[in-house]
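For the sake of transparency, this paper describes our internal protein records without simplification. The remainder of this section carries one protein's record, kept here as part of the documentation:
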Amino acid sequence: MQLGSLDVAIVVAYIVLIFGIALSANIFMKKHFLLKRKEGMKPIESHYLAGRSITFWEATLSIIATEFSALAFLTIPTYVYFENLSYLRFIIGACLSRALISIYFLPKVYGKGLTIFEALARGIHGYETIKREGVLGKKTFAFFYVLTKLVGVSIKLLGGALLISEFFDISLFLAIVFISLMTYLYIMLGGLKAVVRTDMLQAGIFVLGGLTAHYVLGKMSTHTWGELFHFGFINGKFSLFAGTDVMTFVYGILAGIAYDAATHGVDQDLTQKLFGARDMETAQKALSSSPGRSLIVNLIFLSLGVILWAYYTKHGQALPAPEKIFSSLIENYFPSPIKGLMVASILAACMSTLDSSINAMSAVFWNDLMSVDKSKMFRVYINLDNFIITIAIVVSAYLFSLIPGAIKFGMYFAYISTAPLLAFFLCRMMLAKYIKINYSPGLIFLSILTCFLGMGLNHFRFGFNPQLTILWGIITTIVFMWIYSKISDYFNTVKEN
């Protein structure tokens, strides 16, 4: 695709703005650290928790930006094109989930460590000193997280890089390197503060891109936007149900609750931003208010899928490959400089997901996996672990690009990989009164296997609704942990007698 000079100028302006915001975050954090150092703030808290200076709007908009990868930017309209607005069932579930997370999850973990794994090690009592077994348990879960997160973020990067390589007519590997390098540099410039502030801009850009796409499709068509909208409406594209199966919609709500509780309640990507909020009340308000704003953003792209369907149907236009339903219109029909705005929107959606993952994995790598004394060479270690993580993501994304069907598999794996952490969190932090378990590597390993076993049995053996896969994995783990706890209590009682 040929980009005009105005298109390129918009993309360049976006990148310049990103680095300008990261630089301002760097300046802010230097001043903030000088003020808070007397109160005992450490450099690690300044970099990875933004010195607990994250405001309500920074947290809220950053949460929304992280949710929307470049794949979501294009796959949500494609889903609606072939189905309807039944995708909203997951979003309704997410809205319910975040209310529960803000009320019940956050008070259990806020202020108990740099990462969710450290908070789990401290347990519901918030122990000051973590025993050796807890340290090993923390490493075990952190290692599992880094591996699974590497798969998920690499696939999301690959989806965005495929579009960027096509739009700029460059190799896929070069597109992967370009996106990753730009993201790595502004993270290193301003840490978590740079991540949340750039996410605010990126959220605004891809929302503007979605709204602009609505406008352009209306102008491109021989029919008005209102006529396209009405055509979709009378043909059932705005239906909330897949066919007439109401239970499928209910299952979707349950799936949305389970998945969102994992991604927004215990995934380091998002919990790190909540941990960095000024106080717990700010974190709770940001999380509980994000569903309404996230719903608005989702509706922009869901309704875009309806307009796309009406456009192709009304004009009898040949349908491209499913994954190119939207991007082919951008490439072939969107005028300059709107085309440049859409490219910047896709780049923003890709980078807003990537920056959170790199920063979260770096925090986990630093805090939970490395055992050496890092205080004397703080900046060197931060540069090193961020660089290693970025290189690992680049290599993984490129290797996945060589495997047919890798994106579909990787997205499904990323979907289910969050379940074991949520299941263990529920047992250790929410059900501690009924399930008494320690934080040992062996038990963590067993819980992960049990969760995957439950999900596998649902998917391959019992054939329950596939939307409930995560939920069945969580239930299986909780039952297993309860049985383990009762057996452990019995043998301990015998020994005491």
Q: What stands out?
A: The mean pLDDT is 86. The first helix runs from residue 5 to 36.
